[in-house]
User: What shape does this take?
Amino acid sequence: MSELTQTDIRAKPSWLKKHPRFRRGSGVMLVSLSILLGHMPHTFHAIKLISVLAPLMQCMALALLTQYVKLSTVLAIVLTPLTIYWPHQVMVVDACALYAASLGMMLFVFGRSLLPSQQPLVSVMAGRVHGPLRADIARYTHILTAVWTTFFAAALATPPLLFWLGPKGTWQWPLTGGTFAAALMMMVVEAGVRRLVIRNFQHVSLRATVAAFRNTRATPM
Assistant: This one.
Protein backbone atom coordinates (compact mmCIF):
# COMPACT_ATOMS: atom_id res chain seq x y z
CA MET A 1 0.00 0.00 0.00
CA SER A 2 2.88 2.37 0.79
CA GLU A 3 4.26 1.83 -2.70
CA LEU A 4 0.98 2.96 -4.23
CA THR A 5 0.85 6.15 -2.16
CA GLN A 6 4.38 7.05 -3.13
CA THR A 7 3.84 6.53 -6.85
CA ASP A 8 3.96 9.71 -8.90
CA ILE A 9 0.55 10.33 -10.45
CA ARG A 10 2.16 11.87 -13.51
CA ALA A 11 2.88 9.67 -16.49
CA LYS A 12 6.58 10.01 -17.26
CA PRO A 13 7.68 7.65 -20.01
CA SER A 14 11.37 6.93 -19.92
CA TRP A 15 11.99 8.41 -23.37
CA LEU A 16 10.78 11.79 -22.12
CA LYS A 17 13.36 11.76 -19.34
CA LYS A 18 16.37 10.87 -21.44
CA HIS A 19 16.53 14.04 -23.53
CA PRO A 20 15.06 17.00 -21.58
CA ARG A 21 16.48 19.64 -23.94
CA PHE A 22 15.01 17.92 -26.97
CA ARG A 23 11.70 17.55 -25.14
CA ARG A 24 11.52 21.21 -24.15
CA GLY A 25 12.70 22.39 -27.55
CA SER A 26 10.11 20.25 -29.32
CA GLY A 27 7.37 21.57 -27.04
CA VAL A 28 8.29 25.19 -27.69
CA MET A 29 8.52 24.51 -31.43
CA LEU A 30 5.05 22.95 -31.48
CA VAL A 31 3.52 25.91 -29.66
CA SER A 32 5.27 28.35 -32.01
CA LEU A 33 4.09 26.44 -35.08
CA SER A 34 0.53 26.35 -33.79
CA ILE A 35 0.59 30.13 -33.31
CA LEU A 36 1.99 30.67 -36.81
CA LEU A 37 -0.59 28.29 -38.22
CA GLY A 38 -3.39 30.25 -36.59
CA HIS A 39 -2.14 33.55 -38.02
CA MET A 40 -1.50 32.33 -41.56
CA PRO A 41 -3.96 33.41 -44.29
CA HIS A 42 -6.41 30.59 -44.92
CA THR A 43 -9.52 29.87 -46.93
CA PHE A 44 -12.94 29.12 -45.51
CA HIS A 45 -12.52 25.40 -46.14
CA ALA A 46 -9.10 25.26 -44.47
CA ILE A 47 -10.18 26.87 -41.22
CA LYS A 48 -11.55 23.61 -39.81
CA LEU A 49 -8.29 21.80 -40.48
CA ILE A 50 -6.29 24.62 -38.90
CA SER A 51 -8.62 24.83 -35.90
CA VAL A 52 -8.11 21.09 -35.29
CA LEU A 53 -4.35 20.97 -35.88
CA ALA A 54 -3.44 23.97 -33.73
CA PRO A 55 -5.00 22.72 -30.44
CA LEU A 56 -3.66 19.20 -31.06
CA MET A 57 -0.14 20.58 -31.49
CA GLN A 58 -0.56 22.55 -28.27
CA CYS A 59 -1.75 19.45 -26.41
CA MET A 60 1.34 17.61 -27.64
CA ALA A 61 3.47 20.53 -26.48
CA LEU A 62 1.77 20.42 -23.07
CA ALA A 63 2.61 16.72 -22.77
CA LEU A 64 6.24 17.36 -23.68
CA LEU A 65 6.72 20.39 -21.44
CA THR A 66 4.85 19.22 -18.34
CA GLN A 67 5.01 15.41 -18.83
CA TYR A 68 1.31 15.18 -17.99
CA VAL A 69 0.62 12.80 -20.86
CA LYS A 70 -2.77 11.51 -19.69
CA LEU A 71 -4.13 14.98 -18.99
CA SER A 72 -2.94 16.22 -22.38
CA THR A 73 -4.58 13.24 -24.11
CA VAL A 74 -7.91 13.84 -22.38
CA LEU A 75 -7.73 17.54 -23.27
CA ALA A 76 -7.09 16.69 -26.93
CA ILE A 77 -10.04 14.30 -27.00
CA VAL A 78 -12.34 16.94 -25.51
CA LEU A 79 -11.16 19.75 -27.79
CA THR A 80 -11.34 17.85 -31.11
CA PRO A 81 -15.17 17.77 -31.49
CA LEU A 82 -15.37 21.40 -30.36
CA THR A 83 -12.91 22.47 -33.05
CA ILE A 84 -14.90 20.62 -35.70
CA TYR A 85 -18.28 22.18 -34.86
CA TRP A 86 -17.13 25.66 -33.80
CA PRO A 87 -13.81 26.33 -35.57
CA HIS A 88 -13.97 30.16 -35.46
CA GLN A 89 -14.90 30.30 -31.80
CA VAL A 90 -12.24 27.77 -30.82
CA MET A 91 -9.52 29.69 -32.67
CA VAL A 92 -10.48 32.91 -30.91
CA VAL A 93 -10.57 31.23 -27.50
CA ASP A 94 -7.28 29.47 -28.23
CA ALA A 95 -5.56 32.74 -29.17
CA CYS A 96 -6.88 34.44 -26.03
CA ALA A 97 -5.78 31.53 -23.84
CA LEU A 98 -2.25 31.51 -25.25
CA TYR A 99 -2.00 35.28 -24.88
CA ALA A 100 -3.24 35.23 -21.30
CA ALA A 101 -1.09 32.25 -20.31
CA SER A 102 2.16 33.61 -21.73
CA LEU A 103 1.74 37.15 -20.38
CA GLY A 104 0.32 35.89 -17.10
CA MET A 105 3.41 33.75 -16.59
CA MET A 106 5.69 36.72 -17.28
CA LEU A 107 3.66 38.94 -14.95
CA PHE A 108 3.89 36.33 -12.20
CA VAL A 109 7.65 35.82 -12.63
CA PHE A 110 8.48 39.53 -12.67
CA GLY A 111 5.90 40.57 -10.08
CA ARG A 112 6.80 37.84 -7.62
CA SER A 113 10.45 38.91 -7.69
CA LEU A 114 9.42 42.33 -6.32
CA LEU A 115 8.21 40.85 -3.04
CA PRO A 116 10.27 41.85 0.02
CA SER A 117 11.49 38.28 0.45
CA GLN A 118 12.69 38.06 -3.17
CA GLN A 119 15.24 39.75 -5.40
CA PRO A 120 14.13 41.75 -8.46
CA LEU A 121 14.43 39.54 -11.50
CA VAL A 122 16.39 42.05 -13.59
CA SER A 123 18.82 42.48 -10.69
CA VAL A 124 19.35 38.72 -10.55
CA MET A 125 19.91 38.63 -14.33
CA ALA A 126 22.41 41.49 -14.16
CA GLY A 127 24.18 39.83 -11.24
CA ARG A 128 24.60 36.60 -13.21
CA VAL A 129 26.27 38.54 -16.02
CA HIS A 130 28.27 41.18 -14.14
CA GLY A 131 28.65 39.81 -10.62
CA PRO A 132 27.99 42.06 -7.59
CA LEU A 133 26.12 45.20 -8.66
CA ARG A 134 26.87 48.81 -7.83
CA ALA A 135 24.26 50.69 -5.81
CA ASP A 136 23.05 52.74 -8.79
CA ILE A 137 22.76 49.66 -11.00
CA ALA A 138 20.85 47.80 -8.28
CA ARG A 139 18.36 50.68 -8.06
CA TYR A 140 18.01 50.84 -11.85
CA THR A 141 17.39 47.07 -12.19
CA HIS A 142 14.81 47.21 -9.39
CA ILE A 143 12.95 49.99 -11.19
CA LEU A 144 13.23 48.18 -14.51
CA THR A 145 11.70 45.05 -12.98
CA ALA A 146 8.76 47.13 -11.79
CA VAL A 147 8.43 48.72 -15.25
CA TRP A 148 8.27 45.33 -16.98
CA THR A 149 5.76 44.10 -14.40
CA THR A 150 3.56 47.10 -15.20
CA PHE A 151 3.97 46.46 -18.92
CA PHE A 152 2.78 42.85 -18.66
CA ALA A 153 -0.15 43.86 -16.47
CA ALA A 154 -1.15 46.56 -18.98
CA ALA A 155 -0.77 44.12 -21.88
CA LEU A 156 -3.13 41.68 -20.16
CA ALA A 157 -5.70 44.39 -19.46
CA THR A 158 -5.61 46.00 -22.94
CA PRO A 159 -7.66 43.42 -24.96
CA PRO A 160 -10.68 43.38 -22.60
CA LEU A 161 -10.59 47.16 -22.29
CA LEU A 162 -10.53 47.54 -26.07
CA PHE A 163 -13.33 44.98 -26.37
CA TRP A 164 -15.57 46.98 -24.04
CA LEU A 165 -14.54 50.53 -24.91
CA GLY A 166 -12.72 50.50 -28.26
CA PRO A 167 -13.92 50.28 -31.86
CA LYS A 168 -15.03 46.92 -33.15
CA GLY A 169 -12.17 44.48 -33.74
CA THR A 170 -9.45 46.58 -32.10
CA TRP A 171 -9.24 44.17 -29.15
CA GLN A 172 -7.48 41.68 -31.45
CA TRP A 173 -4.55 44.01 -32.20
CA PRO A 174 -2.53 43.08 -29.09
CA LEU A 175 -3.07 39.37 -29.80
CA THR A 176 -1.93 39.60 -33.41
CA GLY A 177 1.44 41.22 -32.84
CA GLY A 178 0.74 44.55 -31.18
CA THR A 179 2.06 43.50 -27.77
CA PHE A 180 5.10 41.83 -29.29
CA ALA A 181 5.94 44.98 -31.26
CA ALA A 182 5.46 47.13 -28.15
CA ALA A 183 7.79 44.84 -26.16
CA LEU A 184 10.48 45.05 -28.85
CA MET A 185 10.18 48.84 -28.96
CA MET A 186 10.41 48.99 -25.19
CA MET A 187 13.57 46.86 -25.19
CA VAL A 188 15.21 49.11 -27.79
CA VAL A 189 14.27 52.29 -25.91
CA GLU A 190 15.41 50.82 -22.59
CA ALA A 191 18.78 49.85 -24.06
CA GLY A 192 19.35 53.47 -25.02
CA VAL A 193 18.11 54.84 -21.70
CA ARG A 194 20.31 52.40 -19.80
CA ARG A 195 23.44 53.65 -21.55
CA LEU A 196 22.51 57.24 -20.75
CA VAL A 197 21.68 56.61 -17.10
CA ILE A 198 24.43 54.12 -16.21
CA ARG A 199 27.88 55.42 -17.11
CA ASN A 200 31.33 53.87 -16.74
CA PHE A 201 29.91 50.39 -17.11
CA GLN A 202 30.39 47.57 -19.62
CA HIS A 203 26.96 46.95 -21.08
CA VAL A 204 26.18 43.55 -22.59
CA SER A 205 24.35 42.64 -25.78
CA LEU A 206 20.68 41.70 -26.04
CA ARG A 207 21.69 38.09 -26.68
CA ALA A 208 23.56 37.91 -23.37
CA THR A 209 20.56 39.45 -21.61
CA VAL A 210 18.18 36.83 -23.05
CA ALA A 211 20.57 34.02 -22.09
CA ALA A 212 20.78 35.38 -18.53
CA PHE A 213 16.96 35.52 -18.33
CA ARG A 214 16.65 31.92 -19.48
CA ASN A 215 19.22 30.73 -16.97
CA THR A 216 17.64 32.74 -14.17
CA ARG A 217 14.16 31.41 -14.93
CA ALA A 218 15.35 27.82 -15.27
CA THR A 219 17.07 27.78 -11.88
CA PRO A 220 13.94 28.08 -9.67
CA MET A 221 11.87 25.94 -12.03
Summary: The CA atoms of residues 73 and 154 lie 34 Å apart.
